[in-house]
Amino acid sequence: AGIGKCVALDLARRNARTILACRSRERGQAAVEEIRAATGNPAVVLRLLDTSSLASVRAFARAVLREERRLDVLVNNAGVTGLPFTITPEGLEETFVTNYLGPFLLTNLLLG
User: Is 81's pLDDT higher than 80?
Assistant: First the structure.
């Protein structure tokens, strides 16, 4: 939703292979179908990613590096605010890991 969906729509309109990295399979798949229909670009795909989980970030990065020939652009867009103080199963504060540590780790893992 929001800025991320707009960016994905613009990339797909430019005929780019576009990977939507989403926490929710249902919402992500709906966005994929909407973007494909709006652009005619079949190369819009969904991959699950939860940046509040470093394990999810690592799994996503491994899959992208294994499955994609190249990665030209990475847009780190997702973030949260106003959550109650919560510690993740990995022992990290949820807002901090979601907004900063997860995207930082993802970027570094994808640099290759």
Answer: yes
What rounded mean pLDDT belongs to the chain? 96
- pTM of the predicted protein model: 0.92
Q: What is the 3-state secondary structure (H, E, C) of the chain?
A: CHHHHHHHHHHHHCCCCEEEEECCHHHHHHHHHHHHHHHCCCCEEEEECCCCCHHHHHHHHHHHHHHCCCCCCCCCCCCCCCCCCCECCCCCEHHHHHHHHHHHHHHHHHCC
pLDDT score of 1: 83
Domain span holding position 84? 3-111
Q: Please, which residues have CB within 8 angstroms of residue 70's CB and are 6 or more apart in sequence?
A: none
Q: Domain with 20 in it: what CATH number?
A: 3.40.50.720
